[in-house]
UniProtKB/TrEMBL annotation:
Cofactor: Mg(2+)
Annotated catalysed reactions: 3'-phosphoadenylyl sulfate + H2O = adenosine 5'-phosphosulfate + phosphate; adenosine 2',5'-bisphosphate + H2O = AMP + phosphate; adenosine 3',5'-bisphosphate + H2O = AMP + phosphate
Pfam families: Inositol_P
GO biological process, one term: sulfate assimilation
Protein known as: 3'(2'),5'-bisphosphate nucleotidase
EC number, UniProt record: 3.1.3.7
Sequence positions that bind Mg(2+): E138, D203, I205, D206, D364
Family the entry assigns: Belongs to the inositol monophosphatase superfamily.
Lineage, opening ranks: Eukaryota, Fungi, Dikarya, Ascomycota, Pezizomycotina
Annotated keywords: Hydrolase, Magnesium, Metal-binding
Length: 424
């Protein structure tokens, strides 16, 4: 009898084991596959597929702990560098064609086919990789939609601008698919900006006047996170590749993009700034850049706008003289000024307001600010107030811009305030 019950008990256990085994066969595969796919997602978040890792030879920090921490914006940096690099192929072809088709916008600033084409290409790259991100771009497609001749000119340029490295070209989505897609890309730059989320600030050709007169110009792109410029990229086809090349007086006037010219600056907040030669394919190797330590401020070289209407040459000169600076200013258009001081070719950037009402545009400064900060500099407005990029398309709470190496910044801003205060 006992053995009968023992047998039965054993059978029950065996049956139960069978049921458990069967159930786990049914449930395990989906559970396992979910876990595996989660692991894959996690891995791709921490280690995104990235040509940059091979090509940049780790331009930023190299310690393993920081490696994981910094990955968050490495993909954004790579996309921004490639997008700007591709857009410079287009701007360079327009620069050489001398058919710089200018339009007149309502604010009378010159707009070129290069501006529209570069904006289309860059926004299409951003949207390919980060479809949810917003973009504050300088241009819109209103003129392109109205003017068929202009549209076909820009479309031809956009189609011709290709990176000659297929992996790099694929990374940013390849060619724009249609004229409508091109128009939509340009118009995707209409974000109102703001303090929340991921917003890119894009100036497809900064320094349009320099571009038209054969001086310096720059293709500028920055990613702002919750209103703070976090990734910055500037392409300057007409600056010398050599970070040490002194700034000569001609740099803002008789420029070209011959051999030995063309620089791509990049920076991620907290991770340093780099420069590398522009290329027509994948990214070239980058090296870290730093502002020049200034032991004696009277030896400083200061940069300012070419256009007297954009920055007060008189006030800039008064500040320089109070600082004991005797070297003449270096005038050049565009955010090439930020890049030049970030790599120690120049030292200070003074942009004293001319007009009481002009509001600086975020796309004229966001990329340059990250690059200078990451190279060891400080940037504020002319009153020493932090630049507020989170209040829309303009820096409406700021007046002017001052950038200098951290060590001398307090002295520079003191003198700037003296000069501004004397005019109040
Ligand atoms: N009144 C006034 N004050 C300050 N800034 C102004 C003003 N008017 C225009 N702009 C903006 O200046 C941008 C180019 O300035 P830069 O210093 O980069 O170059 S320049 O030498 O002044 O041309 C220029 O950028 P781009 O239009 O991309 O060239 C303008 O956005
Ligand atoms: Mg501009």
């Amino acid at each position: 009898m006992t053995s009968f019950f023992t047998q039965l008990h054993k059978k029950k256990i065996t049956l139960l084991s069978l049921i458990i085994l069967a159930t786990s066969f049914i449930l395990a595969p989906p559970f396992l596959s979910r876990s595996v796919s989660r692991l894959v997602q996690l891995k791709s978040h921490l280690y995104p597929s990235s040509a940059i890792q091979q090509k940049l030879r780790r331009p930023f920090n190299t310690t393993p702990n920081r490696y994981i921490a910094r990955m968050a914006y490495e993909n954004e940096l790579e996309v921004a560098l490639l997008a700007v690099q591709r857009a410079t192929l287009l701007t360079k072809s327009v620069f050489h064609s001398h058919s710089k088709g200018t339009l007149t916008k309502s604010d009378n600033s010159p707009v070129t086919i290069g501006d529209l084409g570069a904006q289309a290409l860059i926004i299409s790259s951003i949207k390919h990789v980060f479809p949810e991100d917003e973009v504050v771009g300088e241009e819109d497609a209103d003129d392109l939609r109205k003017d068929e001749a202009l549209r076909s000119l820009v479309w031809d340029l956009v189609q011709a601008a290709k990176l000659d490295d297929s992996a790099a070209e694929d990374k940013i989505g390849g060619p724009i698919k249609s004229v409508d897609a091109m128009l939509d890309s340009v118009d995707s730059g209409r974000s109102a900006g703001g303090r929340k989320g991921r917003i890119w600030a894009l100036d497809p050709i900064d320094g349009t006047k320099g571009f038209l007169r054969g001086g310096q110009y720059a293709v500028c792109l920055a990613l702002m996170i919750d209103g703070v410029p976090t990734v910055g990229v500037i392409g300057t086809p007409n600056l010398p590749v050599d970070d040490k090349a002194p700034l000569d007086a001609d740099i803002g006037a008789n420029a070209d993009d011959s051999d030995g010219k063309g620089v791509l600056f990049g920076a991620v907040k907290g991770e340093g700034a780099t420069s590398r030669p522009l290329s027509s394919g994948g990214l070239k190797e980058g090296s870290k850049i730093f502002m020049k330590p200034l032991n004696d401020i009277s030896q400083a070289t200061f940069c300012e706008s070419v256009e007297a209407g954009h920055s007060s040459h008189g006030d800039n000169a008064a500040i320089a003289s109070k600082l004991g600076i005797t070297k003449p200013s270096v005038r050049m258009d565009s955010q090439a000024k930020y890049g030049s001081i970030a790599r120690g070719a120049g030292d200070l950037y003074l942009r004293l307001p001319v007009s009481k009402t002009y509001q600086e545009k975020i796309w004229d400064h966001a990329a340059g600010v990250v690059i200078v900060q990451e190279a060891g500099g400080e940037v504020t407005d002319a009153w020493g107030k932090p630049l507020d990029f989170g209040i829309g398309r303009t820096l409406k709470d700021n007046k002017g811009v001052v950038a200098a190496p951290k060590g001398v910044f307090p002295r520079v801003i003191e003198v700037v305030k003296e000069v501004l205060g004397a005019k109040e």
